Backbone:
């Protein structure tokens, strides 16, 4: 008995839906960043599953996973820096209350 | 008997991933969300091991469970907030939301379960050698661009957070 490829893809899709719901529902900027990380991890899972199944020789999909790691690290570092500087300007991380740029 | 170990491990990891991921979104305290996020990342590393991608699993533990979780926890520490209940964004439009979400979910489920064959056909030996060959031969230039991106992100984060000295 083996685990089918579709099962991994289904887990990835469910995790991506959870992350999207987190981005839409939560108002805390740090939790929104965490939900974005969940979505990136869901895509990583799908990429690795397809890569292991369809390209056994050169692992192209896993290479893209490595690049997603890099971009995720850069994204969370810059995102947290922006949240921190906004917090220093006005002590809140609620994205509904950070509205200095609204015209 | 031994061929039941893999599906059992997959079921355990799936339950942990979905439950912890839902906990990240639903938890009221931000620290709980951050730690549940680290737990989700750890279980996804287990999924990678199950798929035979041990190198990617090691990167996952090093970068996500190690570095990104610590960064997020620092972010939580520097932005103290009183926990408060969150309002559901689509509270007034849940039927419209269901109208759009249910067809997308059905489509995704149909696509996912059309892949019925085994997930680990290509899994012979580890993935370190093919991964390294791809990165350093075919993707050498994107690899260097990624290092420039990391440097730019590091400098940008420092400049954004640095206090003005006047």
Residues:
């Amino acid at each position: 008995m083996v685990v089918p490829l579709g099962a991994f893809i289904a887990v990835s899709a469910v995790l991506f839906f959870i992350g999207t719901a987190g981005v839409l529902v939560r108002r805390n900027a740090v939790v929104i960043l965490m939900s974005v990380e969940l979505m990136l991890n869901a895509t990583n899972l799908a990429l690795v599953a397809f890569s292991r199944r369809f390209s056994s020789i050169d692992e192209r999909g896993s290479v893209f996973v490595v690049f997603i790691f890099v971009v995720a690290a850069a994204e969370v570092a810059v995102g947290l820096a922006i949240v921190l500087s906004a917090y220093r300007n006005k002590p809140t991380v609620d994205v509904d209350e950070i509205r200095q740029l609204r015209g | 008997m031994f061929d039941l170990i893999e599906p059992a491990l997959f079921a355990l990891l799936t339950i942990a991933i979905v439950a912890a991921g839902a906990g990240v979104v639903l938890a009221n305290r931000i620290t709980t969300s951050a730690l549940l996020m680290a737990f989700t990342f750890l279980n996804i590393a287990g999924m990678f091991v199950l798929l035979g991608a041990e190198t990617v699993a090691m990167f996952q533990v090093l970068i996500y469970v190690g570095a990104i979780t610590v960064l997020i926890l620092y972010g939580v520490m520097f932005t103290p907030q009183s926990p408060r209940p969150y309002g559901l964004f689509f509270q007034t439009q849940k039927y419209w939301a269901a109208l759009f979400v249910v067809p997308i979910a059905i489509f995704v489920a149909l696509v996912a379960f059309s892949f019925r064959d085994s997930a680990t056909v290509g899994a012979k030996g580890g993935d370190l050698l093919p991964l390294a060959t791809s990165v350093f031969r075919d993707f050498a230039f994107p690899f260097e661009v990624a290092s420039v991106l990391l440097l730019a992100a590091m400098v940008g984060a420092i400049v954004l957070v640095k206090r003005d000295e006047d």
Notes: Chain A touches chain B through 71 residues (CB under 8 Å).
